[in-house]
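thoughts on these C-alpha cells:
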Amino acid sequence: MKRWIIYLVAICFILAFIDCKKKDDDDKERMFLELIIADLLHNPYEKITPSAGTITVTGANYSNRAYNPSCSGSSGNTTFSFYRKKVSTSNKKLLINFMGGGACWSGYNCFGSNTTTYFNQLNSVPDLFVKFVFQGVMNANNALNPFKDYDVVFIPYCTGDLHFGSKDMTYTDPNSGSQVVVQHRGYDNVLATLKYIQSEYPGVQNVFVTGQSAGGYGTLLNYPIVRETITGLNSSAKVNMLIDASNGVIPNGFFSNLSTQWGADSSLPTWVTGITANYLTVGNPSTQDFFTKVSTYYIGLGDKTGQYTAVFDGNQRFFYKVMNIINAAPAYSNEKTTDPYDSSKTYSALFGDTDGSSVPDGVLTSTDGSTCGWTQQAVTSMNGISGAAANYSYYIAPGDVHTITTSEDMYKLDSGGTNFVTWLTTLSTGVKPGNAKCTTNGGDCVRSNFTKSTINLALSAATSDQSYANNKNLAATCGTVVGL
C-alpha cells in the first residue's frame, strides 16, 4: 500500500508543477508531464464484477454447480470483483494470483477496530491498487519475470475464509453484543472467476497458480478445481503452482473451523484420492497431508508444486499465536498497546503485533503458539511433503518478511546460494527445482530478508521483543532447527 501512496503523491506533485508551467506557457514540457500522468493513471487491469450463476466442470463432477459471489458484507466490503490483465491477443499463457489478507473465524477476530484480522475494505480501495501494490510475478516490465508474457487473472480477497468458504455465518460482535452475519463466500468467488476463465481462455496451454498468505492457502485449497477447469479447456495444458507464506502451522482441531464457520465441506475436492466429504472434521487433517494428497494426485499430469516461506515469517507466527489465544477464550478487549521499542507504533493488546515481534519465543518443541515452535513445525511439514510427493519442492528463505512473490524484492532474494527467481523460473516451466534452504548455523537464516523494524535494524537481523531484550537474534534463541 505504501507504493500506491507514493505514486499518488508523485501525481499530485506533477499536477502542481504543470499548473506552474501553464503560466509559463511551456507546451512541450506540459505535454511531456501529461504523458507521465497518463502512464501512471493507465490501468492495465480490467475489472470484472460477476453475478450469481452456475458452472460445469466435468473433472470435478460439477454439473451446473451454483455460486453466488460476494464479499463479507461489512461496510466497504460488499461487492466482489476480480481483475484481468491482457498482455497479448489470444494469449495461451495465464497467471492466476490469489490475493492474501488474513482470516476470521470467531467474534474475537471478525470484528473490532484493533482485532479484525482479515482484509474487509475491498470496495474502499481504488482499482489502481492492483497495479501499484502488486509487483513481483505480476510485473510485466521486469525482464527477469518468468511470467512477463502471461495474462493475469487477479482474485481479490474479501471473505476471511482463505478463498474456500461457502456459508453465511452469524457471529456475536463482542463490541456491541449484536448478531452479525459474515458472508464467507470465497469459494463462490473462485467459481465465478473460473467461469470467466472458461469463456476467455478456451485453448490455454500454460497456467501458473500462485497466491500469498491467505491467497497461498487459497491456491492450495482451490488447486484441484482450478486444475480440473483448465483440463476441461485443454487436456494437454501444463499447470503448476506455488504457495507463498502459507505453511498452515495450526493448533490441533483448527481445521474443523473450515467446516463449521465457513461451510467449506462442499468446497472440498472429493475427487482427489484420500480427500473425503468429511475430511475437515474426521481424523487429523493438516496442510501437510492436504498438500501431499493434491501433489501426488496430479503427478501423472506432470504438475509441479512448490512452497515458499521465510523461516521466521512474522505474520504467520502472529496468526499461529492468535489461534492459540482464541482457543483459550480470554476476556475480549479491543484496546491498543504501544510497542515497547517503538513509541510511534501501536497494536492490539489482545493479539499483539502483526509482524510477530510480540510473539513469545518458546522453544523448538513448543506447540503453544510461540516462535521457535512455529519454525520447527513449518520446516518439519515441508520436509514431510518433500519426502512424500516427488513433484513438490520448497524454498525456505532467511528472515521474517511475510510473502515475496508480489514484491520486487523477490528478484534479489537468495537462500543457501540459490536465487529465488532462478528457482521459480525452473518451477514455472514444469521442471522440479531442488529444495533450497537457509541454515541456522552461522546466522544465515536471520541476516537478510528481515522487516525494517526498530529491533531488527538495531541487531541487523531478525529478532523478537523477547530475544532483543537478551541481545539475541531468533537463530541464536531457537538454536539449530531440525531439517535445516
The CA atoms of residues 360 and 370 lie 5 Å apart. The first strand starts at residue 45 and ends at 48. Confidence is low (pLDDT under 50) at residues 13-18. The first helix runs from residue 2 to 24.
